Amino acid sequence: MSVVCIEGEMSVYRAAELKPALLEPAMGGGVLELDLSAVTEIDSTGLQLLLLARREALARQGGLCVVAQSPAIAEMLALLQLDEHLDAREYADTREAG
User: Which residues pair with residue 34 across a beta bridge?
Assistant: First the structure.
């Protein structure tokens, strides 16, 4: 199991920085746990990175789980009905758990 914490924007402006941070642990096999509680903004590029990391983890008999999410992440995943697809935990618990 690998845990990756991402802070700030998950956007086209940080894609080159975030891609290896997500893909390297995903390619290691096992479950990749993402702490996205400090993400302030996510756009379609950030979403594509999440889906790519999930695909890579699944290809190696692993998985991806969003263990903590910010309001921006929760809103995007709910809007696109991807919260279950990405095994996202409830937002309500993440802000107070810190």
Answer: 4, 66
Check: CB of residue 43 under 8 Å from CB of residue 22.
Answer: no
Q: What is the pTM of this model?
A: 0.86
User: In the 3-class helix/strand/coil scheme, how is the chain assigned residue by residue?
Assistant: CEEEEEEEEECHHHHHHHHHHHHHHHCCCCEEEEEEEEEEEECHHHHHHHHHHHHHHHHCCCEEEEEEECHHHHHHHHHCCCCCCCCECCHHHHHHHC
Q: Report residue 46 as tokens.
A: 């950030």
Q: Which pLDDT tens digit goes with each residue over 39-82?
A: 999 999 999 999 999 999 999 998 999 999 999 999 999 999 99
